[in-house]
Amino acid sequence: MSILALVTAAGALVVSATAASRVPKRGGSGRTVDQLPRDTAALRREVAAWADAQTHTFRHLAVVRYDAFGDTGGALSWTLALADDTGSGVVITSIHGRNETRTYAKSVSGWSSEQTLTPEEERALAEARR
């Protein structure tokens, strides 16, 4: 189980790093208050750049837990939806059975996926969108 959590965390880290690489490199990070522009127009540009960069961070997330099979209990299967403000991100699903566990990742763009989503994945994506 801990190996699965490690693999899932590594996958989420890769997706986050990919999204972060799309964010334009603008001034602002690591600067002190004294280094910020003093005029209102420049401050407005700084805030706009920061807000634009936030568009590509995973701020929408939801987890749906469920029993994937009738012979297992405890809602050990789960789906995690992670998306930015544009609806781009990933849906990660882990299906737990009696003898094995399988994990799937599907890319999301514009709040939908080219791959067919399960009802649980659709639910997680819908909950993340709220």
TrEMBL record:
Pfam families: DUF4446. Residues 120-130 have a biased composition (Basic and acidic residues). This is DUF4446 family protein. The keyword Aminoacyl-tRNA synthetase does not apply. Residues 107-130 are annotated as: Disordered. Residues 1-19 form the signal peptide. It comes from Mumia zhuanghuii. Residues 107-118 have a biased composition (Polar residues). The keyword Protease does not apply. Keywords: Signal.
